[in-house]
Amino acid sequence: MTSAESNSHHVYVGSEAVVKLIDADDHSRLNREIALAPHLPTGLTATLLDSGVHRLGTHDIRYACYARAPGTPPGIDMPGVDALAARTLAEEAVQQLTRLHSWVPESDTQQVLREPLDHGGFTSQAALCTEVENLAALDRHGTVPRPLLDGLSAIAKRAPLCAQAAVPVHADCHGDNWVVCDLSVTALLDFEWARFGEPADDWFFLARFSGPHVETVLDVIARATTSSPETLRAECEVREAAHLASDLRIALEHPDAHAQLAADRLRALEELIVGRYWWRDAR
User: Fold this and answer.
1) Averaged over 204-226, what is the pLDDT?
2) Can you state the angle between helices 200-208 and 214-225, rounded to 10 degrees?
């Protein structure tokens, strides 16, 4: 097996199986994924073959072994994917996510999806305003330029009063978490952030990490869901604001550990506020 890049796990990929490992004392999100995997809609994700805890020296190691789905991820920002392929993949991804959003879990599985999770996404106008205020209070050295903080605050003030916890969402469906073979989606991976939310929680990730194809993906989503393009852009904008504010707060709370996170999120925040990312190509 060969190792694969992961921000939070040790991941090993073989010809027929994929294994994820993590110290059991670290975050518990893999537990969530393991609990959900057998109950998700058929064919949506890779088959869970085995899972458990293994004692290694003085540490407990949580593991999950999955059947390897055929294909490879298109990747964040879809490098090398042309416009026609991007539309085809977006249409398939929207179909799969719509299946997830329509899924009615059994009561035990609902409990898993409702377990508290600090997901950093949008929950309410008040919570987002508070997050921006906390970020400003932490930023004693002016790491976040004032115009960007003001832009975040403006997005927060026009956000909906609250988001509903209405349907199951993946909440991390960027291009590294899809598996594609011959322009067909074969699996959606990594359900560690799955929870109850709104479909827009997934539409944001699908569009934001599609690189040069964001307008194509937004068009596919709007057509499939009969959403107003303006409403869809606004929903994505507020969700990006929530994630960026949360990540920047974490980076300022732990500056030595998260210097790269801060730099990455500041670039994205400038795109969001100064570049008006979700509106720059709106017609």
Assistant:
1) 98
2) 150
User: Do 114 and 6 reside in the same domain of the chain?
Assistant: no
Q: Which domain holds residue 16?
A: 2-67
Could you tell me if 52 and 89 lie in one domain?
A: no
Q: How far is CA 196 from CA 110, 149, 157, in A?
A: 8, 29, 24
Residue with token string 């009969």: 226
What is the rounded distance in angstroms from the CA atom of residue 203 to the CA atom of residue 32? 22
Residue 267 sits in a domain of what CATH number? Answer: 3.90.1200.10
The total number of structural domains that make up the chain: 2
Query: What CATH number should be reported for the domain holding residue 15?
Result: 3.30.200.20
Would you call 161 helix, strand, or coil by DSSP? coil
Structure tokens at 133: 């205020």
Domain identity same for 163 and 127:
yes
Q: Kindly report, residue by residue over 252-271, the tens digit of the pLDDT.
A: 999 988 899 999 999 999 99
Q: Which helix (H) or strand (E) holds 201?
A: helix 200-208
pLDDT in tens, 78-109: 999 999 999 999 999 999 999 999 999 999 99
Count other Cβ atoms within 10 Å, centred on residue 157. Answer: 11
CA–CA distance, 86 with 26 (Å, rounded to integer)? 36
| Mean per-residue pLDDT of the chain | 95
